[in-house]
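Quick start: what a row looks like.
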Amino acid sequence: MIKLVRRTAVAAGIAALSLASSASWAASYTYDFKTFFDTSTTLDLLDTKTLSYSVATLNIADVTGGVQLTLSQLANAFPAKTGGTFVEALWLAGPNGTLKLTSANTSLAFGSGYNWLLPQIKDAGYTYPWNIDFASKTFAEGETTTLTITGSGVTAAAFAKAGTVPMLNLGNIGSPYTGLLGLNTEVHFIGKLQTAPVPEPATYALMGLGLVGIAAAARRRAA
């Protein structure tokens, strides 16, 4: 009986580890955008405020060959000019790859992509090689767009651990955030990580193997 339990435990563990190694592990990170650089505070360009609601969310998830970006601009109460706010650009730090828009509701502006030679230094000194620039006033409130970035070493974890945070340009902004002389109509929001990835399949497999071992030991003691 004891030998049978041991064989069952070993077989279950091997099967679990085999499943883990063959499964495609997909990490997924979700950010929301509540904190922004207050352009109405002209004497302190790095002054920030945090809203009680999100103006947008971003999910970065592993897919075959790279990552998928799902960016949603939520219906929000942020001050806007006629027509509401629009997402103008998303700034990211991460590895180089091929950018592709996979939804048809909006379009990318000329120059969108990765620039390793001249990465942009934005508010608070954050540096971004990725500038995903949307065509002006096309990405409205309530809309979601999806994109992919594919290439060697392109993973969700690589973007999440790039040493900076996503930044979002929200455009068509109204008073009091129109800036000096009302010339600036964009406000920059920084993303906050909301969800960490679930454990890898291998972790679940090892946990399962451990539980099987504990059960086998308990049965031996009971016998």
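That is the whole record. The helical segments are 2-22, 156-160, 201-222. The first strand starts at residue 28 and ends at 37.
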